[in-house]
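Hi! If you just cloned this repository, the fastest way to understand the data is to look at a raw example. We've pasted two of them here, unedited. The first protein comes first, obviously.
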Amino acid sequence: MAEVIQVGCIGCGGRGRLYTSGLAKLPGFRMRGYADARIEAAKAFQEAYGGDYATTDLNRVLEDPDIGVVLICTYHDTHAPLSIKAAEQGKHILLEKPMALTIEECEAIERAVEKAGVRMALGFKMRFMPVIAKVREKIGTPMMMVGQMMDKRWADTNWAQQPKIGGGNVISQGCHTTNILTYFAGADPVSVYAEGGPMTHTGTDIIDNVVATIRYKNGVVASMIQGDAGLNPHVSKFFFELFGKDGKGAGLYNRCHEATLWGADVDRIGPETLTPQENEDIEGDQGLLRHFAECVKENRPTLVGPREGRVATTIVVKIFEAVRTGKPQKIEV
């Protein structure tokens, strides 16, 4: 690996800006090229973060021999072809979530990454939120969980709400929920049953709100509530509840910036109990970037790699199948 790793960004929107600005500050990395369908967006990134070129030609970044890392922050339907080509070109990949819209696409990405021997991280920032990590340490493996991510109604014109390019809010944001529930469970999912449907959007077959029950291999059971029927200001958009063994438990709220615990050796985790560095990265974005950078430099797998991305998407796809068939679905990962 070169002493200074050149980086390319494909998709110069909000997440692309966050990843570019963060990675550009880390030692050993330099931004080189930017690609976006809107040349003005790519040029704005070059002006803000340096580099050698801005283009509307995605292949220029993917095929650039000087680029060792590529950030893919594009519409969900493009994740598979772009990630597969990036892997085939020998580039390490930071891919914004969800990994893809289908299980088959996720499997194809995973095969390409493994064959190429490159490193991949999904944009599962919540895995690096300090409060989430501390709650898992204090509670251990739970018996039951609730994972809730409810948002204000998404606009019908939101690109992520379009069936073919975004897949809707349940897969777009629900992959965060399934990833964290699996992290808390500490085991693979084995089955799911769900009810829901197109509840907040008319004239579409996108399933936009669900209540699901997920069972894990070690017996842990989780209830997942996902959708855009409304944002509860009391618990916030992100809310998790863990019921552990020996009377232990925790409730995470305020976007998982705070937690109330019972039966543990602490009764609260929040800003006043965190270090200054942890408070600066309360959302986990910088932790994700630092972890990805270290794994690239040390050539080791990430904690949020292609398998984790595939499992997260698989659970959501099986939730959709359960809703549409009215039958429990087995999950094989």
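Ok, and the second one:
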Amino acid sequence: MDQFLDAIWMEQGLSKNTLRAYRADLMSLAQSLAKSDKNINGARKSDLLDFIAKRIKSGAKPKSTARQLSSFRRFFRYMQREGLRSDDPTVDIEMPFIGRSLPKTLTEEEVDLLLNAPNIGEPLGHRDRAMLELLYATGLRVSELINIKQSQINFNQGVLRIIGKGDQERLIPLGEESQRWLKEFIDGPRMEILLERQTDYLFPTRRSECMTRQAFWHIIKRYAEKSGVRQKMSPHSLRHAFATHLLNRGADLRVVQMLLGHSDLSTTQIYTHVARERLKSLHGEHHPRG
């Protein structure tokens, strides 16, 4: 449990109150299971359903139940991701509908400040700028970004091939700006980072390895502080900004759904809550980095 809480704090910079809420939810489940001589690490779907049923019977509201289930889901997905168990017992448990929303997203001006923060005169700074440009231009998940290999980019067609959640493949168009930064990085700074070493990963570390999610989170946080962006940041801040700014500029919701790799349109619709102002003149562009 402590490892999980440390991991989500490192990756998302959650507040102490949020971390306390996660701990309280997990402790509540653990204590309930202990009464039946069961351990939270080995909890089954039936155990979780029994716990939720008891909570509802005692008068728990849908919002509270949804928050607890969300805590459990993230905990078991973490365990699965770390190889601590082979399954996720929450996967088929339906979340109570209470409405969904996003935190306030970055403005286009704040995105520009963030993108201009890396020192592109240094190989690692150039790499970071290329990563941020690509992230904002495509709305990739951080896990997708750090695992990109050169073979996934087709400059002739101007597309990026991504294998997302559930092994679903999607092709994402690359704008001129992101293509320019990628080409400049590949032709020079990337080779300086690798020296004589070889790797298929597009954005290698000094050790020629794949960057971790935690390392990229620290990069985002550092550049936000350097650029003076006061908005609360997370590794997915640019993904949120990508979707919101597209909708602000009149993009079709289903197009955004396809680009983000959402299987359900309702997941994409949460961005409409923070994308209410439509720009009347698009000047032939649908995206600031198009």
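That's it. A detail worth noticing about the second one: Residues 2-81 form a domain with the DNA polymerase; domain 1 fold (CATH 1.10.150.130).
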